Amino acid sequence: QSDLLHMFNGIPFSTKSSTALLRSLNNFQAREDDLLLVSYPKSGTHWLAEILRQLYSSKAPHKVSITSPIEFGEVSTLEEMKSINAKRIIPTHLGYDMIPTDFKDRKCKAIYIIRNPKDTAVSLFHYYKDNPNLPTIDSWHVFFDIFLHGQAVCGSWFDHLLGWEQHRNEMSIFILYYEAMKKDLPKSVRKISSFLGINVNDNEISEICKKTSFTEMKTNVEKENSDPNNTVCALTTNKRLIFRKGTVGEWKNYFSPKQNRQFDDLCKTMLESSYLAKNILYEN
Ligand code: A3P
Question: 45 near 113, Cβ under 8 Å?
Fold first, then answer.
């Protein structure tokens, strides 16, 4: 199944991200009003994208386009992005080092969504099992080691977080937690709207929260015929596979006590100095 993943910069990428595109990323011309939507896979990317879509469409003068991920497809992706006239919301799973430098030079806005890595690992395990664009995995046990060693698609969760964290002051980055969204979605939506400078009242916020609930989004995706070219994740061609459980703490049904210890030990070593990780690791 080597035709599904390939290595670039020491990171396993989907072959849906061509080598030529990955090599050309630095040629990308950013615009001041571009918004990057950054995540490690399975952190709630589609959820956040839908919230942004709803937020902007609640305000008529804002015309936005949620593009396909910047790392998705061939070199032509970069050309296609040029032809978009609206404000671009650009999803990506790339690590900070690989983000086109023009985004950094222009200090573009970015939202970085983080999810507890244990739940992220379990979610990605199911994605490996269900998604024909990812290699087959025999068991949770096997996948656990792949994730722990940073060999899953898009590389190490830890490196992704630390890379973005170290440079978080070089762009205008807003950090969002999946768990906080689950706990109090209106509060998160309000924070997102003030980061983006969108004025929304309480009624509009509660409307957006209704439309972006797990059940609502799952039901809607089952009704629509997903367009494989319209995706916010370079691994996704079937959006129906996205809405699985949408809960916090599923990892407890998968991690053995030994795996949990191993994972916690790695967290201690890797994330000791991480300010962003403190909010998630010791809560669940
Ligand atoms: P699970 O596999 O744990 O169910 P991504 O969009 O980055 O691929 O992330 C997918 C994960 O986000 C899945 O987690 C999915 O169920 C969850 N998700 C998607 N929409 C959601 C929503 N509206 N509310 C809560 N979780 C959601």
Answer: yes
